[in-house]
User: Fold this.
Amino acid sequence: MAARVLVFLIQRLLLGVIVLLGVSVTVFALTHLGGDPAAALLPLNTPPEDVELFRKKAGLDQPLPVQYVNFLSHAVRGDFGQSFRYRQEAMGLILERLPATLKLAGLGMFFALLFALPFGIISGLNRGTYVDALSRVIVLLGQSIPGFWLAIVLILVFAVQLRWLPVSGSAGWQSLILPAIVVAVFPAATIARILRSSLINVMNRDYIRTARAKGLSPTPVVARHALKNAAIPVVTVIGFQVGVLLGGAVIAEVVFAYPGIGRLMIQSISARDVPVIQAFVAMTAIIVVSVNIFLDLIYGWLDPRIRF
Amino acid sequence: MLFKSSSVLRYMCLIVIVFALFACAPVAQPQPAAPAAPSQPTAAPAAEATTAPAPATAAPAAGPQGTLRVGLVTDAQSMDPHRVTQTAGEGVMKAMFDMLIERDFDGNLVPGLATSWTIVDDKTIEFKLREGVKFHNGEDFNADSVKFSLERMQKEELASPFRNNYSAVEEVEIIDPYTVRFKLSKTNAPLLDNLSAQLAMLPPKYTAEVGDAEFGLKPVGTGPFKFVEWVKDDHITLEANTEYWDGSFKGKPMVETVIFRPIPEASTRIAELTTGSLDLIQDVATDQAETVEKAGFKVDKIDVPQEAIVFFVTDVPDTPLNDVRVRQALNYGVDVDSLIQNVLRGYGTRLANPIGPLSLGYDPSIKPYPFDPDKAKALLTEAGYPDGFEVTIDATATDKTLTTEAVAGELAKIGVKANVRRVEPAQFNENWDHKNTSPMVAARWSGMFDPANFANFLVKSDGFLSRYNNPKADELVAKGAGVMDSDERAKIYGELGKLLYDDPMGIYLWLPENLYGVSPKVQGWRPHPRSYVMVSNTGVSE
Assistant:
């Protein structure tokens, strides 16, 4: 068993590396498609000689494949080069701000599950009733509200009108609540929807009928038999939502002036600070890939039929 | 699954919105240039007396009190004044550092750490330095600091974005501890203005000891506030320098502590102001000014030298824009006043030519082209385009204050069908660099206190961004760059302005106004024409 898990893990890690390579090619291509980084970075009045000097120093005068290989060979060692804007290690800038974003994303995921589990379960167990209908409307709203708009409405209601929470910033746990709600809403709705349909599916299975027939009361039937079996697609979706959370953090961090990597990313994109963009994408990809590998391992526990 | 169209869309909306927040940065941000005001090249102590700040009414005898909380648009990239390029960060630098010469609230050049300066000849400037000034760490300010700071700026390893501005200074000669001379390799008129913008005075011993990188995290200057703490993207804290020298145009620190918070989203900044968590915010959008005022806060405004112009490409033969009558017609055909009212909600000042109201050489007797569509059509007919023509205007994808579509709408009324092509800022700059633009280009050119750079890059026919060709203008530009005396230069640029009015290089639009939201608790604060948020001489009442 242990050996098989190890083999599975190695397979997964190899796949992860391939995904990361793909990501690196894509981000490299994208950052070079949108115009010359030198033109974005230097003021418009920079004389052409100085622009050339800058390009040379930053290695931007090399052919693209050469630049890519250079980039990759440094990147595997965690070296993404110096930020053009901050003149500091790009990866260092990301790592400095990463804890703040992880805190936000973590609380966001907690909120998402806090919302998704009851809604998904109630909806799934009461299929077709008005409770289900209401819950589905709420979930649909959650999936379609733009985060940017929601963030501003939350500020106006809870910070400006009611004065319960600070408008923005990162002083104290209170300032985390509104941004965490913003990042949580979309994943919450998605998870609730999947949980509902998965639960409906499971509740019609024979083993549930058997469990009921042998006289189990509804609570253990749902808790012990139905939920565990309904959890597999939900876990898969949670894995996907990690990426969504990090994406949502970009919106929330900008609106709530929260000092995380999402905000750094937006600044770097507009300043075409290529090393930081690349370090950010690499870091995000690593997080998403690792979370998904971890979740793959959980499947085995959830469903003993799944063998590695 | 990961690429659900809804999440992709969300991303795209976000990026568009967020780019708009950074809109002011990438368009055309050359560093400003040269002296605007002192009619004599030597700023006498008399000038100092008049610019010394009046004691603020709120001044308690006990010294600095309370905390001033300021909302900025972005964080500073560094705490190293020789590297910071955005106005948000520059305001923070101005609180901690002083320059030899300063640009005051009215846009005049006034004494800073130099009590006076003399143009000895076209290649030599002499500075008399202020005595008894100490850096925050106790080091004395003197001629060594000047020499050190200038040479640091020129150093290749530092790679300062302003390095180019100081390349004309060949040598800093120390005459005595409080007198220095800059020897120039060639006349460099914008030098004085550059000195006032970036050449912060640094303590030589401390800087050498900690190194350039560390200095960017723990700065030491002579300014009214001392550095305390910088948490990136979250806040910068400064404390009052109670020993700040007398006679600075900045005035004394009136609060014990200043906290700067970078908040990119405009509505968030306003919410922070109206809930009382901030006292002063930068960059209130014109359409939100009313909200701020209704909430009981003040909106302070100031003209900034950032000229909005739709530039013409005139160097392509046999195109409509090649004809001066067409260029005039387009100026007659746009109702700029109504655009200022309707698009900028009145927060803008009309421009008659590029030598605008804040520029050296501004001539108020030149009135902007009146809105006269009949005259415009007549000129177009005369030039052989009775039915107008079709043209493309390039604009950056992010500029929110330069509403190119509105200009295009005006042009349509005189039969000129203008299509607006929105281009990503980096691509936009690159296109311009490579003379690869559409026939018209909408942009803002900042730093127009001194027209030298503008003239050099955009007016002179061989300027590297220029698409304009007028031999008489070339002559004037060369003349302007060849003298140091401001009076004479003002005259030359006045003439250039007249010429650019008669033979337009673009559709001249406006100078935008910068808006600030100010709490009624704040006293003595004034906006600065360079868009810095200056925090000294500003008190906060409880």
Summary: Confidence is low (pLDDT under 50) at residues 1-60 of chain B. The longest helix of chain B spans residues 5-21.
